Amino acid sequence: MNMLKRFLLCTVLALGLASNSFAADVQLDCTNLVLDYAYHRDRPNPVELSQLFTEHGSLTVGADTWTGRSAILERLESTRSGPVYRHLMSTIRIFPVDDDHATGVSYVTVYNAPQGQRSVEGFAAIGEYHDDFVLTDEGWKIDKRVFVPIFFYGDKD
């Protein structure tokens, strides 16, 4: 094989590996955001949770949408004296769109109970988070997160 063919082969292989490596990095970074959201939501760690979002990011749960880190921070602060939550994440799929954007869908089972109570009858909800991620100067952040409910405990329909 002549030198030019070797060079072209090496270049093509390197570009393919770089592309796969970039996609894997995006998937890992965004998956960590999904897991960090559940962790900080359940503690609750309002500041840390709000920092997972872009400055103007949004969170939608039901009919309510909070836009901006400060609104998301206030929302979690207001729930500190409420029930204890546990978000069990599974099936996390991240789809890189381009160098600065990705989307994702993750499944969540949510349990909650009043503070101090150690038993629950069943899950509160099972649903999906639909996410838009953006690469910022701070790294990958959630730009838009929407909770899409699939089941609620006690649904008989």
Would you kindly provide a brief summary of this structure?
By secondary structure, this protein is α+β, with helices and mostly antiparallel strands.
Q: The biggest beta sheet, please? A: 6 strands, mixed
> What global shape is seen?
elongated
- Name the poorly predicted regions: none
Strand content: 35-45%
Give the helices and strands as they follow along the chain.
HHEEHEEEE
Helix content: 25-40%
The CATH architecture: Roll
Rounded average pLDDT: 89
Let me know the number of strands. Answer: 6
Using only C-alpha atoms, the radius of gyration works out to 20 Å
Please state the structural category: alpha+beta
Quaternary: single chain
Give me the CATH fold name: Nuclear Transport Factor 2, Chain: A
N→C terminal distance: 67 Å
* Main β-sheet, spatial strand arrangement: 2-1-6-5-4-3
List the total number of helices.
Answer: 3
Structure characterization notes:
The chain has helices spanning 3-42, 46-50, 69-78; strands at 53-61, 64-67, 84-98, 101-113, 125-136, 139-152. The chain has 157 residues and is an alpha+beta fold. The model has no long low-confidence stretch (mean pLDDT 89). Helix content is 35%, strand content 43%. The radius of gyration is 20 Å and the shape is elongated. It has a single domain (3-152), classed as Nuclear Transport Factor 2, Chain: A (Roll). It has a six-stranded mixed sheet, with helices on one face. It starts with a helix and ends in a 5-residue tail after the last strand. It is built from three helices and six strands.
